């Protein structure tokens, strides 16, 4: 576990937030050697943090034992150079169990996934996240998406809860996010963190920056870290020409391709890692592999993105 508080480490990110895929061997078991290499390469490429065993890392497909092993491997691979945040989810009891496993494995924080299956009211969601935060020493980032969409008033209560340090938005309602940021600020909470957690967040990050949200997840960083880092730098420095060039030439076409298959937000990213030379295996069911022609399009898109970088040099 790194020594500095998680919120302080993330408040001014030096690079993209890295959500590594989980590597599997030919027998379908977790491949820790490939996983450590994947994480280590991401850190060396400039990631500001590693979010292990989260959505891109197929949290849903891992047993508790595999989860703990992978989080521990991510901590080892980072060598305390950047913080490691682990996923935690399902119902409250299981989320607490995963939180404690992550704590034992040396993680620096938790990304609290939406509760499993149920669509709960605001009172129940607030209780769920508060009980999770109270059960661990790790700081918690709440992931808003799908069946866990929070009102500004609920987020104010979360921001006032000891141990909850941020909100990751995977819902994409900018009006709601603006009202949420304003409500928390008006409540006097100044150090609460906000993350753009939409799939392929770079596409929407210019809009989120207008709300003051500078942190975002980058699954693209898994397989083309050079493109993700260039986009991050351009966003941070106000280089709008580079942002537009990458959005128009790479990120928008990638999203178009991603939307051609269910689950491609994970399986297409994992295929990209394999295309770049690291065998991390296939996704586990119920996800499925991209179609052959989509893999060809992905390979062409990777080449196009790298050419765009050369044009900007």
UniProtKB/TrEMBL annotation:
Q: Offer one Pfam family short name for this entry.
A: DHDPS
| This protein's UniProt keywords | Lyase
Entry's SMART domains? DHDPS
Reaction equations catalysed: 5-dehydro-4-deoxy-D-glucarate + H(+) = 2,5-dioxopentanoate + CO2 + H2O
Question: Which Enzyme Commission number(s) are on file for it?
Answer: 4.2.1.41
Q: In which pathway does it act?
A: Carbohydrate acid metabolism; D-glucarate degradation; 2,5-dioxopentanoate from D-glucarate: step 2/2
Question: InterPro entries per the record?
Answer: Aldolase_TIM, DapA-like, Dehydro-deoxyglucarate_dehyd
Record keywords: Zinc included?
no
Q: Does the keyword Membrane apply?
A: no
Cited SUPFAM superfamilies:
Aldolase
Q: To which protein family does this belong?
A: Belongs to the DapA family.
| Protein name, as recorded | Probable 5-dehydro-4-deoxyglucarate dehydratase
- Print the organism lineage: Bacteria, Bacillati, Actinomycetota, Actinomycetes, Kitasatosporales
């Amino acid at each position: 576990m790194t020594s500095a508080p998680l919120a302080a480490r993330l408040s001014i990110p030096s690079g993209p937030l890295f959500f590594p895929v989980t590597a599997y061997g030919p027998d379908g078991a977790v491949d820790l050697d490939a996983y450590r290499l994947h994480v280590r390469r991401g850190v060396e490429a400039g990631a500001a943090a590693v979010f292990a065993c989260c959505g891109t890392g197929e949290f849903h497909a891992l047993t508790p034992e595999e989860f703990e092993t992978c989080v521990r491997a991510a901590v080892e691979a980072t060598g305390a150079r950047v913080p490691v945040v682990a996923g935690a989810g399902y119902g409250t009891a299981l989320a607490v169990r995963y939180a404690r496993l992550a704590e034992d494995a040396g993680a620096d924080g938790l990304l609290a996934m939406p509760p499993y299956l149920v669509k709960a009211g605001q009172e129940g969601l607030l209780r769920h996240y508060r009980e999770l935060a109270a059960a661990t020493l790790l700081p918690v980032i709440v992931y808003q998406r799908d069946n866990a969409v929070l009102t500004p008033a609920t987020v104010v209560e979360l921001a006032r809860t000891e141990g909850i340090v941020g909100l990751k938005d995977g819902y994409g309602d900018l009006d709601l996010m603006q009202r949420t940021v304003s409500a928390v600020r008006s409540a006097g909470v100044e150090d609460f963190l906000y993350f753009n957690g939409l799939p392929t967040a770079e596409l929407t990050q210019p809009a989120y920056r207008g709300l003051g949200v500078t942190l975002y997840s980058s699954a693209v960083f898994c397989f083309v870290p050079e493109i993700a880092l260039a986009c991050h730098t351009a966003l941070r420095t106000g280089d709008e020409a580079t942002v537009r060039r990458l959005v128009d030439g790479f990120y928008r076409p990638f999203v178009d391709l991603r939307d051609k298959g269910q689950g491609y937000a994970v399986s297409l990213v994992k295929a990209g890692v394999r295309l770049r030379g690291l065998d991390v295996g296939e996704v586990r069911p119920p996800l499925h592999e991209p179609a052959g022609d989509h893999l060809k399009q992905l390979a062409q898109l990777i080449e196009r993105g790298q050419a765009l970088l050369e044009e900007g040099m």
